[in-house]
Structure formats: C-alpha cells, structure tokens
C-alpha cells in the first residue's frame, strides 16, 4: 500500500476549474469532491451503506474528538478507524486544530496548545508531534498538519506571528509523520492579508507535503473576503497535488471554490440542515417543517434518485419531523448529502466539456441560492 497519487485530467478552458483523480490505499476519489463529515467516526444518523449509496467517495473524521473519545487505546486495539467503523473507502482526518482553538481556556506557546479537556477538565498539551501520533494511530488515508486556526478578523501583527508559528509546526508535523501508507497535507493560513497569505503559501509549499489546503476561511468572514482569497491563491497551490479548502459546503461556496481551482471540500451543513428540517433542492432550500407539506404526496424533489425521494413523501417527512422522529432527520440528511455530491458530479461533467461557467450560470438562474453569500 502506498500514499496517494494525484492525476490532473482536465482544466476547464474558461475558468480554473479542474477535473482530477486521487488514488488512495482505500480506493479512488474523483475530483472535485465533497466530503461528508463524520466527526466521531460516524456521519450523524446514517449507516455506512446509506453513505455509500449516495455515492460518497471519502468521508472526514476529527482527530481531536476521537482522541478524547473513544481514545487511542481503543483505536490501537481495533488497528485503526477503518476497522473500528467498518469503513472500507478513503477517509481524511483533520488535525483537531480548529476544535482546539475554539476552546476558551487555552494557552498557545511554541510547543503547542495547552487546554483543558471538555470531558473531565484535565490538562492536555496538543503539539504537532502529538497530532501526528493521534492521526497515525487513527490510520486515516489523509492526515492534516497541525496548524493555528485563527479568527480572520485578528490583527496583522498577531496574524504574522501565527503564520510563522504554523510554518514551524508544519515542519515539525512533517518530521514527526512516519506512516508510510498515510498522506499528509499542509495548511496555508494568513487570514485576509494578501501578503501574509503569500508568505504562508511560500512557506508551506516549500515542504514536500502530499497535498495542500487553504485554511482560515469559512470562519465568519464575508463572502467577498473569501472570494478575494480564493481568486488570488486557489490556483497558486501546486498544480500536481490535491487542493483542499476546509469547511466549505454551500452550493454558492462550492461553485466559487471549484471555479478557482480547488479539488476537495467538507462541511457539516447538509446533515445539520437535515436535522433541522431543511432540504437542499435544485430550486433552493425547502423547509419540510412547514405545514404546507402536510398533505403533499410528492417527494422532496422530483427526479431525485436518493433513497428518501424514491421511498417517501414530503407529507410523511413532515409528520416525522413534527413527532421528532429520528428517521425524518436521517431522510433529509440522506437527500442533502446526495444533492451536494451529485451537484459536484454535474460540475465534473461541465469541466470535462469546458462548460463550467455556463453550468454555474444555469444553476443560479434556476434556483434561489445566492450567487454571493
């Protein structure tokens, strides 16, 4: 078994959108790709068969949460996450950086981040070396270097120090990573400062990572600010490696990301919206809790081939939601993930035909999704 291999198959003639293929120890990933989030080694409310039936090629799990529970002793006992959750397709773990930095009681030093466990209050020091140890024990196909995920609104001087610290942590992550059949991605930071993004880009890409990510976006900044970073730096990432933008999952942001040369993205949005009764459709968002669905015999979306649409009506799902039945949330989650994944399939076809921008225009003209968030 070897690390990943990336093939660039085609670039759209009229945009930076690219069509590729990633070979991993657990199978092939066609790109661009949307990755459902399985934080605790499960995509909330869905079985593995349900995830596979919506054509998911890879899922994401979280090193920080798995480190806390079930813990590395259990991961070692099961010889990794694929055995633990009985998942035989590719899997990516994030480093836990975002979760660590979202905690209030934490102290950042050159060594790493000292924080208290949200489970029992015990003190934990998370370092690049510790993050690599955790992710290697988990055994994901793709691991992420430990970085500092900062608020995009923080000041220039702190951001500059953070960028340089992320670089030093990236070098330590690379040196500590020894698992031969696991790839490691580096993360470019820099917030909304172009010169710091460029600085981070040059620093991180100087390390021979297997892929590269743009971090520090989708953390509350305006759409125009994300757009500026993506347009300026998306296509500057190495062309012969996978490009990953973290935390992206709305149709608007997926189109923006693909148009600017990104290959991979993940988000909890489809399942979170599903648990709150909102479906994603080709016409726009649909509130299935609304009383107008009570007598509706139609599926969530006509001509949709997901399990929910092939087997159940809006009226039935409305009833499940009103009674707070788990099945209702599961059905909408299945549909929403199917929607995102098959929207990406359509993007792939459009890239291959050099018609990505035409497809984008058609999509937004026929739906209520905002062209800009």
From TrEMBL:
Active-site residues per Swiss-Prot or TrEMBL entry: 94, 266
Highest taxon above the source species: Bacteria
Binding site for substrate: 94-98, 147, 189, 216
Start and end residues of each tRNA-guanine(15) transglycosylase-like domain: 15-366
Entry note: cofactor: Binds 1 zinc ion per subunit.
Family matches, as SUPFAM superfamilies: tRNA-guanine transglycosylase
Pfam families to which the protein is assigned, alphabetical: TGT
The keyword tRNA processing is assigned to this record: yes
Cofactor(s) the protein requires to work: Zn(2+)
Recorded GO CC terms: cytosol
RNA binding as annotated region, ranges: 247-253, 271-275
Pathway(s) annotated for this protein in UniProt: tRNA modification; tRNA-queuosine biosynthesis
Presence of keyword Endoplasmic reticulum: no
Enzyme class at the top of the EC tree: transferase
Keywords: Glycosyltransferase, Metal-binding, Queuosine biosynthesis, Transferase, tRNA processing, Zinc
Residues the record lists as binding Zn(2+): 304, 306, 309, 335
One Gene Ontology term from the biological process aspect of the record: tRNA queuosine(34) biosynthetic process
The protein's Enzyme Commission number: 2.4.2.29
Molecular functions (GO terms): metal ion binding; tRNA-guanosine(34) queuine transglycosylase activity
Reaction catalyzed: 7-aminomethyl-7-carbaguanine + guanosine(34) in tRNA = 7-aminomethyl-7-carbaguanosine(34) in tRNA + guanine
Subunit composition and interactions: Homodimer. Within each dimer, one monomer is responsible for RNA recognition and catalysis, while the other monomer binds to the replacement base PreQ1.
Role of this protein: Catalyzes the base-exchange of a guanine (G) residue with the queuine precursor 7-aminomethyl-7-deazaguanine (PreQ1) at position 34 (anticodon wobble position) in tRNAs with GU(N) anticodons (tRNA-Asp, -Asn, -His and -Tyr). Catalysis occurs through a double-displacement mechanism. The nucleophile active site attacks the C1' of nucleotide 34 to detach the guanine base from the RNA, forming a covalent enzyme-RNA intermediate. The proton acceptor active site deprotonates the incoming PreQ1, allowing a nucleophilic attack on the C1' of the ribose to form the product.
HAMAP family per UniProt: Q_tRNA_Tgt (MF_00168)
The family this protein is said to belong to: Belongs to the queuine tRNA-ribosyltransferase family.
Protein name: Queuine tRNA-ribosyltransferase
Biological source species: Oceanotoga teriensis
Organism lineage: Bacteria, Thermotogati, Thermotogota, Thermotogae, Petrotogales
